[in-house]
Amino acid sequence: MTQSALIQGGASGLGQALVDRALKSGEFEQIFVTARDRSRIITEDSRVIPIELDLMSDTSINEASEKIASNTEKLHLVVTTAGILKDESVGVRPEKKLADLTRSKLEIVFSVNCFGPFLWYAALGHLIRHREALVVATLSARVASVGDNRLGGWHSYRASKTAQNMLTKNLSLELSRTNPRAVIVGLHPGTVDTDLSKPFQTGVPPNKLFSPEHSAAYLWDVLNTLTPERTGQVIAWDGQTIIP
Fold first, then answer.
1. Model confidence over 194-208: pLDDT tens digits?
2. Beta carbons of 34 and 117 less than 8 angstroms apart
């Protein structure tokens, strides 16, 4: 059976490392890889199909989903790596107190971390609505856990990822009604040495600061051991379930 994968944000960092894992696995005849600038997706492997996608744009989401649908009828693995924690160009940084919140910054963080991924899944439509084995994984974070929140702060990031987790649960219930083989999860990759985490790596033990390749290896192991019983969960890099 022809297998197709889709990895959003696969031009660099953890996304690119996951693309490499997908290629090395030999499981997929087609791997759709998205980036806001498709020219950044550099590969000579004919299995890779570059797709331009900006999750902040509904037009881009619709156009990208149509391009994928013109190449395949079904997707069997979908991974979304979108995330924003700090971006000085738009004034976004983790808030230390409630007074630091602004509507515009909340909207940016929620748009990237929550709205974009699930509008993307909605646009994929029939590509993920089938009865074959399916895994849809969205990068989440341990700090999104309400039950595990003991420090507070980081209001917009925490809340956007918590909302993302609720949509993950909702989608898992919706798809399971017609496809008992579907597994829809959030994935916590650990602290990965990328631009997103660099300002916040102080105090992270060396053995818990992962390279993109190291984190991708852990996550690939998790993806390969998922069963339908775990659908709707948020799962850490070590395979442990994160409490809601």
1. 766 666 666 667 677
2. no
Check residue 229 and report its DSSP letter. Answer: G
3-state secondary structure of 103: helix
Give the domain range for residue 208.
4-236
- Per residue in 107-159, pLDDT (tens digit) is 999 999 999 999 999 999 999 999 999 999 999 999 999 999 999 999 999 99
The residue to which tokens 């069963």 are assigned: 227
User: What are 18's two structure tokens?
Assistant: 């996951």
46 occurs within a structural domain:
yes
Assessment of whether the complete model's pTM goes beyond 0.90 = yes
For the chain, give percent helix, strand, coil, nearest 5. Answer: 45, 20, 40
Split into its structural domains, the chain has a count of 1
Helix or strand or coil: residue 117?
A: helix
> Which residue in 114, 157, 140 sits closest to 243, CA to CA?
140
